[in-house]
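TICKET #2291
ISSUE: user wants both folds in one file
ATTACHMENT 1:
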Amino acid sequence: MHSIAFNFFGRPIHWYGICIAAGFLAALCILQYKRNYARMDKEQIFDIALIAIFGGIGGARLFYVIQFFHQFSGNLWNVFRIDQGGLVFYGGFLTALVILFIYAKIKKLSFARILDMYAPAIAIGHAFGRVGCFLQGCCFGKPCSWGVVYPGNSAPAERFPDYLSPVKNVIEGIPSIPLAPVQLIEAAGNIVLCVFLLKLFKYVKKTGQIAAAYFAMYGIMRFLLEFFRGDHTDTILGVTPSQFIGLFIMLPCGLICYLCFGKYGKDAVTNEDLKGAFTFHFFNRKKDAAE
């Protein structure tokens, strides 16, 4: 756990904030690359990227504060310190979804195409975010023999202290017992999901099916990973809030969208839609050399 990357004029810059920024840039690259599919120009891509990032972060923070309000009862100013971690993915996802729907209606764009384009972008951005969670020490896992040990005075150490640790001291506090690195597992899963969704564009016949695959696949992945999370204390019908959303909202939405868009959708995907808005010169050089 290394929460602080460096100090800038005496103020600590957290890795979590850096990872969020890197995730936004990676997602923006995918949005720009696939903008032909959504039939949008550069300016519109920047519009929805900024709208989604600010709306998404706002919604993600709001959901986190509601879920863990006890952490802010002593200092409400910390509600705005998102650089120190504390975002609920589903809160940001649902908020951004509503904002994008409104934007698509105003601009008379295809909401299904925007969702398809956003699916791999969300996955790669989420992967960077989970790396930030790992470095910040939030969203930690449950005890396991093959886990990682967090330092004393951290949230994981407070929840799962290792009283038998030989390295504990008065200043640093008691470290945690080994905990599952569930953040890194989810980051890897999101990277695989992003690559899979980008490959899937070649095989879809109707718009909306990429988004449907993302809804279903991420819902299943998140439901399974939640069994290894150790930071949750609240449950809904015996499952965590994220498991409830993944199993009873994301997965059904994915299946319904796939069936509806596949059977009733009239917006077919053309070869022009699948062309990238720009090319990667590194790969083109290799191709030219081979020819």
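ATTACHMENT 2:
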Amino acid sequence: MRKGVWVILLLGVCCHSCGLGNKKVQEEKPFGPTGIPKELRANPEVDGGDAGTAAPEVSVALASHPEADDIMWTDPDRVEEDLPELKKLLAGPKREVWLKSENEAKRIAMREGKCVLIWFTDSVRSPICKRLSEELFGVAEFGDWARDNTVRLIVDQSALMARGEKYDNEVSAQEYVEQMKKKYRAIGTPQVVMLSPQGEVLGRYRGYNKGQAEFFWGQLKHAVNVGRSGYDEWMKKLEKQGYRRWEGPDGRTLVARLVAYHQGQMVMVEPDGNRFRTKESSLSKQDQAWVAAEKKKRGIP
């Protein structure tokens, strides 16, 4: 047998043993069951993408409150009638998929323990933004994941063409877009900024390349995992201050502490200082049981 034939045969054996000759398509996701790129699992990329940087220490400005046990249980003057009701807060109208209010998005995120996904885009004039929408943000599977794990906020440069529309703090569309771009150092579009439920920047992702959807999504999943871990630690600190999670009839939740109670009337406050009221009878069965136990400790009928 000629020498050239032997070389061909040997190459064929090597290719088969190394898997190079196997044309079977891998059906598994490229990043495994987590969907997170391997390099991000061990070395979190935080606020700029430097591998090996540790997750930011979670900090949020809390309103000044009394100690956990210092609740006004019998003072009717503390039950403020002009406050919004908990029932309305927890059973509000169905919200849009992409919110336009930063204040609303951050408050929902804190209440539900979800990260905020801010998308800086130019939906009309940017072909790259349209590609990101078609390949990822507009895909049903991503939508299901994002609904369960994030609060989505859009900052659309094309909104500058809208006339008369008002945004947070009653500013114009142009003022709002410019304020958001400056606040989050968003240069160009598309850019995605991920915030923890407490409002800390977890990561910035600039630009998008065709076919990059799986990797881009993996980065967002990683940011959510980092944000969830930080939120759990934050909740432990809040629980020591008397905060707990309250649940509405439709499953919506918020974090607050009871600060006043009188004959079934209650006043609560969220970590950012937002106050509201409710009736004991309007609470879920689980929440009513908690209130009953607290009343029993204090000998309140």
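RESOLUTION: both attachments delivered.
EXTRA DETAIL ON ATTACHMENT 2: Strands lie at 115-121, 150-156, 191-195, 201-206, 244-247, 253-262, 265-269, 275-279.
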